[in-house]
């Protein structure tokens, strides 16, 4: 099944956009994102993500390391300047790639990417802070190379 997905699992460049909302506020912010997925070998895939928020000056830079990929699971590590480094687990099926981070003090959440066609994915993500406020993210990503 791994061969069915080009996002995260194969080298390439992706762009996306969407909205971010917060459980403590009715406001929604627009964002754009760029992904660069490098796979020097099949054992470890490195993904660099840049997120620019509406009204924000500095982009958020995330590094994802995907490894131990099987036909239906994988392990993932997220690194950034806000959370440091956290590890999680992922699942793969014919239509979906998703991952979850939990068990970390002050950080937990998930992301779900659903294929909508060749090199186009709809995604939904939710993250919770220690005070249980939620960040909700919805959008699309598409391959650009």
Structural overview:
There is one protein chain. Strand 4 (60-67) and strand 5 (73-80) form a beta hairpin. The model has no long low-confidence stretch (mean pLDDT 90). The chain has a ten-stranded antiparallel barrel with strand order 1-2-3-4-5-6-7-8-9-10. The protein has no helices and ten strands. The two termini are 22 Å apart. By secondary structure, the protein is mostly beta strands. It has one domain (2-143): Calycin beta-barrel core domain (Lipocalin, Beta Barrel).
Write out the strand line-up for the largest beta sheet, numbering strands in chain order: 1-2-3-4-5-6-7-8-9-10
User: Average pLDDT value?
Assistant: 90
**What's the CATH topology label?**
Lipocalin
Total strand segments = 10
Helix tally equals 0
**Distance linking N and C termini:** 22 Å
* CATH superfamily placement: Calycin beta-barrel core domain
Catalogue the unreliable spans. none
Overall geometry comes to globular
User: How many domains, as an integer?
Assistant: 1
Strand proportion, as a percent range, falls in: over 45%
Give the helix level as a range of percent.
under 10%
Quaternary state reads single chain
For the largest beta-sheet, the strand count, sense and barrel status come to: 10 strands, antiparallel, barrel
Topology order in helix (H) and strand (E) letters? EEEEEEEEEE
The CATH class label is: Mainly Beta
**Structural class of the secondary elements?**
mainly beta
Q: Any idea what the radius of gyration is? A: 15 Å
């Amino acid at each position: 099944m791994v061969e069915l997905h080009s996002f995260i699992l194969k080298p390439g460049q992706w762009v996306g956009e969407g909205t971010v909302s917060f459980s403590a506020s009715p406001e929604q912010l627009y964002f754009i994102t760029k992904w660069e997925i490098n796979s020097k070998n099949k054992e470890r895939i490195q993904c660099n993500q840049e997120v620019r928020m509406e009204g924000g000056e500095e982009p958020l830079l995330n590094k994802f390391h995907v490894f131990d990929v099987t036909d239906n699971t994988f392990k993932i590590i997220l690194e950034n300047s806000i959370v440091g480094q956290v590890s999680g687990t992922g699942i793969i099926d014919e239509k979906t790639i998703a991952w979850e981070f939990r068990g970390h003090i002050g950080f937990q959440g998930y992301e779900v990417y659903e294929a909508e066609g060749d090199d186009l994915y709809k995604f939904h993500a939710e993250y919770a802070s220690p005070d249980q406020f939620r960040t909700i993210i919805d959008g699309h990503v598409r391959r650009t190379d």
